Amino acid sequence: MPWTGKDTRVPGVQGRQLAQGKSHPRKRLYRSRAHSNPLNDSHFPVPAHPQDFDWATYYPAFFGGASASHDEAAPSTSAGAATASTSAAAPADAAAPPAGSAEQPLVRFADVGCGFGGLLIRLSPLYPDTLMVGMELRDRVTEYVKERIAALRREEPGKYDNVSCIRTNAQKYLPNYFAKGQLQKLFFLFPDPHFKKANHRRRIINTTLLDEYAYILAVGGIIYTITDVQELGDWMRDKLESHPLFERISDDELAADPAANLLETATEEGQKVARNGGKTWRSVYRRIAST
Ligand SMILES: C[S@@+](CC[C@H](N)C(=O)[O-])C[C@H]1O[C@@H](n2cnc3c(N)ncnc32)[C@H](O)[C@@H]1O
């Protein structure tokens, strides 16, 4: 049986909320420590291969099932499943879908360290036929995002079926979730800065991890980064600039990219920075073919 990714240790916050008649999760009930150490070995199951993961549980409407909350049982993957390839309705910048199985829709966008999920919620209606996933290390925050999406699905049937969230350590396990060339867009919005020099190795953009991101991105796929910490902004730009498989996308080109225009304000962290009048540093790069 495929692994469903359910973390049975997550407390039943939703149950308590629903019992109180609340349909949307309240963020304050899901707060946890601001930072987790991404080098720690956390105790949650990880699929050995992307195909071992039970994606249908997360996107039932795309796998031949009705729109459902994340906690409902997964329908089977098979005939009649909608495809998640880029649709005609998707903005023109979306990369051509890389090879995938005709039967199994594939996730094409990943928001790494998605926090409370603001970007996913904004992207969902812009690319309604594209599956996208948030990947978040903190279990209570992951739970919040899942409940937020479930509430939106209940409120607006037929919408938000293409977004979901997984608890995982993206610095260790991305290739366990995505096959070579699968992703079209990879987002790193306001990643933890790890200020101390001794902790720079914990940064989620570094040369070794860029090799991994290049592996799971399709040629033509895009990596988006933004931060309000100038030193980290320079660091991410330098690492991307010196990597042979990425080329910078100009601001002119980005002006026509709906996803790029969400980077500053779609997420909770971005909104906090904007409220405080903070500056941001954005680096967006395209995955290019090796020569
Ligand atoms: C500063 S917050 C930014 C959240 C969100 N992107 C935003 O802009 O609001 C960074 C997030 O990355 C998550 N994170 C850090 N390391 C991670 C990892 N290795 N894998 C997945 N998530 C991670 C943290 O738990 C935190 O929620």
Automatic annotation (TrEMBL):
Alphabetized GO MF terms: tRNA (guanine(46)-N7)-methyltransferase activity; tRNA binding
UniProt subcellular location: Nucleus
Reactions mediated catalytically: guanosine(46) in tRNA + S-adenosyl-L-methionine = N(7)-methylguanosine(46) in tRNA + S-adenosyl-L-homocysteine
Region (Disordered): 1-29
Catalytic class of the enzyme: transferase
Primary subcellular site in the record, as a coarse category: nucleus
Domain of life: Eukaryota
Gene3D superfamilies named among the record's database cross-references: Vaccinia Virus protein VP39
Keyword terms, alphabetized: Methyltransferase, Nucleus, RNA-binding, S-adenosyl-L-methionine, Transferase, tRNA processing, tRNA-binding
SUPFAM superfamilies: S-adenosyl-L-methionine-dependent methyltransferases
Protein's pathway: tRNA modification; N(7)-methylguanine-tRNA biosynthesis
Segments passing through the bilayer: none
Positions that bind S-adenosyl-L-methionine: 113, 136-137, 169-170, 189, 267-269
GO cellular component, one term: tRNA methyltransferase complex
Cited InterPro entries: SAM-dependent_MTases_sf, Trm8_euk, tRNA_(Gua-N-7)_MeTrfase_Trmb
Pfam families: Methyltransf_4
Enzyme Commission (EC) number: 2.1.1.33
Active site residues per record: 192
Function text: Catalyzes the formation of N(7)-methylguanine at position 46 (m7G46) in tRNA.
Family per record: Belongs to the class I-like SAM-binding methyltransferase superfamily. TrmB family.
Name of the protein described by the UniProt record: tRNA (guanine-N(7)-)-methyltransferase
Organism: [Myrmecia] bisecta
